[in-house]
Amino acid sequence: MESEGMITMGYWKIRGLFRHIQYVLEYCGAEYNTKYYEAGGPPDFCKKCWLDEKFNLGLDFPNLPYLVEGDFKMTETVPIVFYIAEKYKPELIGETVKDKGTIKMLMNILHDAKMSATMPCYTQDDKSVVMEAAEKSFEPISKFLGDKDFFLGDKPTLPDLYIAELVHLILAVDTEKTFEEKFPNIVALQKRVDELPEIKAFLESDRCPDIPFNNPYAKVNP
């Protein structure tokens, strides 16, 4: 699909789960390009662009997002970010057995929090429902972070990169401006990550397009 050494990422033309992966790609300095699939508009929100290719890409478990690197192909968001980090910047996944275990735990917790905030966007047209789900998920996450600069201390690891885009989504939904008041340490972490030189350069580049958080059939799409 692409020459060896160049990663191709496939995903909907939304921020969705892909922007989380981009944070890791960019921080690691990995070369990649993007294959976007764009859902149609109402009333049917056609997904033909993806469905026509879904089972013809050689993916063992066809899904979006997907990663293709030479002959290697994989799907599923959390395994993808672990693969990128382990290949390009392994210190992101921990330097001790305990740190590695903690990072894996945090990644599962954060991915669950991402889904708990995203799924109501597709089923409810009430932003307060989204915020209620998000804030419930973030209570133990905020407690774990405490007053540390990053989840494991003074330098970023995979969960820090992963959480930043989720906070962007929540702040975009939070028209009542309650999230930062309740979780100032989480918002401070997000801002700290966005100021990392690699991430700051990405956010200011054309690799970070101004596209919606969710697909067009979402009921909440800030």
From TrEMBL:
Recorded superkingdom: Eukaryota
Any Pfam family hit: GST_N
PROSITE patterns: GST_CTER, GST_NTER
EC annotation from Swiss-Prot or TrEMBL: 2.5.1.18
GST C-terminal domain mapped to chain residues: 96-213
Residues annotated as domain GST N-terminal: 5-92
Keywords: Transferase
Gene3D superfamilies found in the cross-reference section: 1.20.1050.10, Glutaredoxin (3.40.30.10)
Residues annotated as transmembrane: none
InterPro entries tied to this protein: Glutathione-S-Trfase_C-like, Glutathione-S-Trfase_C_sf, Glutathione_S-Trfase, Glutathione_S-Trfase_N, GST_C, GST_mu, GST_superfamily, Thioredoxin-like_sf
Family classification: Belongs to the GST superfamily. Mu family.
Function: Conjugation of reduced glutathione to a wide number of exogenous and endogenous hydrophobic electrophiles.
Protein's UniProt name: glutathione transferase
Species name: Euplotes crassus
